[in-house]
């Protein structure tokens, strides 16, 4: 049976409902012919949003302006300009250890941890693998594809280098053996190949770096080594000067060695960028390994030397850093997450010309950062990709289809004013590809709640998510004392569905003539927003007789005036409070009905219903009452007569008097229980809900 796309089904349902509404409806006697069956529906992945999980490698095409990111599970993500994104997957699921673009040819080579290499065709609509090659006896450690070359060089763990013809994707038979590359008198193995690069001025020569600290300049035509360079520390990376007269190596002791090509006996310069320089001229103290270094030249100024790692060992707990050395200045840029890889973006793809670097793309474990090298202070570019979905952990997610046509433009208009400061003024440099619209005919919105109290609205109508608007609920509450504290109570109110409070925000439009529209407080005035405390089912003091915290909310609502921008504005704050020295349970569910002006929320102990227009508690019920077979509103019949004296001195009370045991009963309970029972304490916990409503000032937007 033919399979149908679920989006087309939704389109059909929308169209049918609209036509039925316009036709005035059908008669009840008309039979509805149901044509949809379970076989017509199927779930399939249409697009993948968010940051690549566990990234492992990266490559950039400087001509087509396309960025490729590989992951540890074999996934491949391609990024271009805003809206251009593609997801591919290797069938083996092995980690991608390295990526190499065939620059300006629409092709990409991927090397995997299972010792296989693949050639991807990116020129078609859905990228696919054209050729594959797998090594069975040696493990791949490094690959290099020179610019405008058909030869792919593959280094292995045994120290050998194999050459593959990219056009036919077959081995050429030319192998550079490790025992011929190093000194013949050396008996120890040099270790795996950690670097391969071609000479900028002579494509017939390769620079080969071995892990042990040996670097070899190999002549491909003569099949011999021209020069060998030896250092007593392990090598992590090598970078050429564009003239081909010098190269720089990064080492495991945090040092950088600069070598003149024709002077292999001794390094021309040895520096430790983050090491303490002894006054007696001795060798600096060792630092952490410099994992990667890049050496880029400029026509008008000093060259750039960019490196990751190399910090001093005494910097315990310091975040990962990227170091930019330009002339005599050294700038250390701290990152939020560990650095996986980085690339320097240059104006030219030719290795024998001045590089003219303009940006650095840094791949972190959970983020992608681009640094502007052309501005003072090295600001970062504002990322247009929807990679920040998990910038703060997502605690809830809602999907809405066929939204009102004016909603997305309104959210976008308000959200465009929320631009953060401090970003580079230049355009996003990864600008390749053509942006395509989605095929669906209805607007879609995804709303995510996050652990830091923010709510993000995403436009999901196109193939790539776009942030429309960001709402911060944390600003409604007072900040915790001591900003350095990591256990801020602001995190207790994490989102709509996780926390001990409910923040109700209303979308506010200009209403010059409305009576309910508050004005902005006068700057410098001592006035504070109005605070209204709503009635609760029971009333207790702020502290019980045994010293327990009672009727105290987990978060303190701000007492100072709050300036709110156009968009969703806070109208009501509902909080659960401490009862009998116990904190309230987290809210696990929440629903709102704007037609009736009701908010319903619940947790493991019960639920509450609030009229948010009147700011009144309508109902709260315990879990035991929800599962009770009897009517929760059932009450025992009472006589309207006044109390009369009975035998034995016992009096019959009317509705206005209660015994001690009656006062311990829930207003919705049909049975009594001692005040100190577990059920009663749970019931009291549900009943003692404190509602705080705050009227905040609104900023009137003239264009709304």
Automatic annotation (TrEMBL):
Coiled coil: none
SMART domains named in the record: WD40
Pfam families for this protein: LLGL, WD40
GO biological process, any: Golgi to plasma membrane transport
Matches recorded under InterPro entries: Lethal2_giant, LLGL2, WD40/YVTN_repeat-like_dom_sf, WD40_repeat_dom_sf, WD40_rpt
Source domain of life: Eukaryota
Region annotation Disordered: where it falls in the sequence: 511-553, 624-681
Keyword presence, rRNA processing: no
Family: Belongs to the WD repeat L(2)GL family.
Identification of the protein by name: Lethal giant larvae homologue 2 domain-containing protein
Species name: Pleuronectes platessa
Lineage: Eukaryota, Metazoa, Chordata, Craniata, Vertebrata
């Amino acid at each position: 049976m033919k399979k149908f796309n679920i989006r087309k089904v939704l389109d059909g349902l929308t169209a049918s409902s609209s036509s039925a509404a316009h036709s005035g409806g059908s008669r009840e006697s008309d039979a509805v012919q149901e044509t949809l069956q379970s076989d017509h529906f199927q779930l399939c992945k249409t697009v993948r949003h968010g940051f690549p999980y566990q990234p492992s490698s990266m490559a950039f095409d400087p001509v087509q302006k396309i960025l490729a990111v590989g992951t540890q599970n074999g996934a491949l993500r391609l990024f271009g300009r805003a809206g251009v994104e593609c997801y591919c997957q290797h069938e083996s699921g092995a980690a991608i250890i390295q990526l190499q673009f065939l620059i300006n040819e629409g092709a990409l080579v991927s090397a995997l941890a299972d010792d296989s290499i693949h050639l991807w065709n990116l020129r078609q609509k859905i990228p696919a693998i054209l050729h594959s090659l797998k090594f069975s006896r040696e493990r791949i450690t490094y690959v290099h594809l020179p610019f405008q070359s058909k030869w792919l060089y593959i280094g292995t763990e045994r120290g050998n280098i194999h050459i593959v013809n990219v056009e036919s994707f077959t081995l050429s038979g030319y192998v550079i053996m490790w025992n011929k590359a190093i000194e013949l008198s050396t008996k120890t193995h040099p270790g795996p190949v950690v670097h391969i690069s071609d000479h900028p001025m002579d494509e017939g020569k390769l620079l080969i770096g071995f892990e042990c600290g040996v670097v070899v300049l190999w002549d491909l035509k003569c099949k011999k080594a021209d020069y060998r360079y030896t250092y007593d520390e392990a090598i992590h990376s090598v970078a050429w000067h564009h003239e081909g007269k010098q190269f720089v190596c990064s080492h495991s002791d945090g040092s950088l060695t600069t070598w003149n090509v024709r002077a292999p006996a001794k390094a021309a310069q040895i520096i430790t960028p983050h090491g303490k320089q002894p006054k007696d001229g001795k060798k600096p103290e060792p630092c952490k390994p410099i994992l990667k270094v890049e050496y880029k030249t400029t026509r008008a100024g000093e060259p750039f030397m960019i490196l990751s790692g190399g910090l001093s060992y005494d910097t315990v707990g310091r975040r990962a850093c990227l170091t930019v050395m330009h002339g005599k200045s050294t700038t250390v840029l701290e990152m939020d997450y560990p650095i996986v890889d980085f690339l320097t973006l240059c104006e030219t793809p030719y290795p024998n010309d001045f590089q003219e670097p303009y940006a650095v793309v840094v791949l972190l474990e959970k983020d992608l950062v681009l640094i502007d090298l052309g501005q003072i202070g090295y600001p970062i570019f504002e990322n247009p990709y929807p990679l920040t979905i998990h910038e703060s952990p997502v605690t809830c997610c809602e999907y809405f289809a066929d939204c009102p046509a004016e909603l997305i433009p309104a959210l976008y208009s308000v959200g465009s004013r929320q631009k953060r400061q401090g970003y580079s003024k230049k355009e996003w440099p990864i600008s390749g590809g053509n942006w395509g619209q989605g095929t669906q005919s209805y607007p879609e919105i995804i709303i995510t709640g996050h652990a830091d109290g923010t709510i993000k609205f995403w436009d999901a109508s196109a193939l790539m998510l776009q942030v429309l608007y960001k709402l911060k609920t944390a600003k409604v509450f007072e900040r915790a004392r001591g900003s350095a504290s990591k256990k801020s109570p602001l995190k207790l109110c994490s989102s709509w569905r996780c926390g001990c409070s409910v923040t109700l925000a209303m979308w506010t439009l200009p209403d010059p003539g409305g009576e309910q529209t508050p004005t902005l407080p006068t700057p410098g005035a001592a006035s504070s927003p109005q605070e209204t405390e709503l009635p609760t089912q029971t009333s207790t003091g702020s502290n019980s007789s045994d010293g327990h915290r009672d009727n105290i909310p987990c978060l303190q609502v701000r007492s100072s005036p709050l300036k709110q921008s156009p968009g969703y504005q806070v109208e009501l704050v509902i909080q659960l409070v401490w009862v009998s020295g116990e904190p309230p349970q987290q809210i696990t569910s929440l629903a709102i009905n704007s037609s009736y002006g009701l908010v319903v929320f619940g947790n493991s102990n019960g639920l509450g219903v609030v009229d948010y227009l009147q700011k009144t508690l309508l109902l709260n019920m315990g879990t035991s009452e929800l599962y009770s077979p009897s009517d929760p509103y059932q009450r025992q019949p009472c006589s309207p007569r006044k109390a009369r004296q009975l035998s034995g001195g016992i009096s019959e009370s009317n509705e206005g008097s209660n015994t001690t045991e009656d006062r311990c009963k829930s207003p919705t309970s049909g049975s009594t229980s001692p005040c100190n029972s577990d059920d009663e304490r749970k019931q009291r916990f549900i009943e003692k809900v404190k509602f705080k409503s705050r009227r905040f000032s609104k900023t009137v937007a003239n264009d709304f």
